[in-house]
């Protein structure tokens, strides 16, 4: 409600009157015959959905049968396929007796991500130490060759640990690259600015699958053998370039919001280009583009499932192998639900942490 004071040219905004829960329900859900019928029909429909899903997933389901025979004749879910084939889903082609290494490596990544969320560690040196040590420990556990661990080549990696490894590697390599590309697009040197613009537009115009397919199968024909590396390294490098080009545009958008007067004021104080960029421009650019950056991280984790096309046994491919036998073939829905839950946990955690950062930095709440 708005009241205009006629004596003084001042507009006074009054808070809307408070409405109780019962009043809100009556106004929004039962305001008339048609509204009441729609509300009741919707409640009945969602009640039926909850009952049907609950009966299938929990009431009539089988959880711990070691064979598919225990699921014959049931009307619910056969979660026994997860119980019996969980190692294949989580570890893929990794040697069975070395599964503890893959599980420990995933735990190391989760620990590193958790430590990175602590504000006390938000300095370049501390984060570099945490991620550097974590990367060395992860690769040492997965690859082996040290402390008596047997060597497991990258083509034997699979399951959840491979998905996490690719996601973390792409983000670690792609974020510095995105900063470089964003600064290059803002450069006053025409050659640097145009070359970075062409690269970003060219990569963004191509589908991710085409880029990964080229890195895995075509690039080896154009490079000498000593420069090719293994297929996983090439795929991660191509994926990181794709990530960097998209993230660079998010960062550049955050930089364009910053008033030009701040850079001019920094120049008047005698700060050089790198001091202005590291202390004034980039911190504000990250803050301004934080929602878009978090969204790009979420999309990158979902896009890791594409690597199945180029021959890697990620968690999705491992899930398909779990019900690939005649015994467990009828229970593919349960496997896909389990894999979907894994993706949901990671993506929901990323989105909630992004919301926490937005609230902490008060993005959009000035």
From TrEMBL:
<feature type="transmembrane region" description="Helical">
    <location>
        <begin position="164"/>
        <end position="184"/>
    </location>
</feature>
<keyword id="KW-1003">Cell membrane</keyword>
<dbReference type="InterPro" id="IPR000515">
    <property type="entry name" value="MetI-like"/>
</dbReference>
<keyword id="KW-0812">Transmembrane</keyword>
<keyword id="KW-0472">Membrane</keyword>
<protein>
    <submittedName>
        <fullName>Amino acid ABC transporter permease</fullName>
    </submittedName>
</protein>
<dbReference type="InterPro" id="IPR043429">
    <property type="entry name" value="ArtM/GltK/GlnP/TcyL/YhdX-like"/>
</dbReference>
<feature type="transmembrane region" description="Helical">
    <location>
        <begin position="335"/>
        <end position="355"/>
    </location>
</feature>
<keyword id="KW-1133">Transmembrane helix</keyword>
<feature type="transmembrane region" description="Helical">
    <location>
        <begin position="29"/>
        <end position="51"/>
    </location>
</feature>
<feature type="transmembrane region" description="Helical">
    <location>
        <begin position="304"/>
        <end position="323"/>
    </location>
</feature>
<dbReference type="InterPro" id="IPR035906">
    <property type="entry name" value="MetI-like_sf"/>
</dbReference>
<feature type="transmembrane region" description="Helical">
    <location>
        <begin position="100"/>
        <end position="122"/>
    </location>
</feature>
<feature type="transmembrane region" description="Helical">
    <location>
        <begin position="129"/>
        <end position="152"/>
    </location>
</feature>
<feature type="domain" description="ABC transmembrane type-1">
    <location>
        <begin position="160"/>
        <end position="354"/>
    </location>
</feature>
<dbReference type="Pfam" id="PF00528">
    <property type="entry name" value="BPD_transp_1"/>
</dbReference>
<feature type="transmembrane region" description="Helical">
    <location>
        <begin position="196"/>
        <end position="219"/>
    </location>
</feature>
<keyword id="KW-0813">Transport</keyword>
<comment type="similarity">
    <text>Belongs to the binding-protein-dependent transport system permease family. HisMQ subfamily.</text>
</comment>
<feature type="transmembrane region" description="Helical">
    <location>
        <begin position="231"/>
        <end position="248"/>
    </location>
</feature>
<dbReference type="InterPro" id="IPR010065">
    <property type="entry name" value="AA_ABC_transptr_permease_3TM"/>
</dbReference>
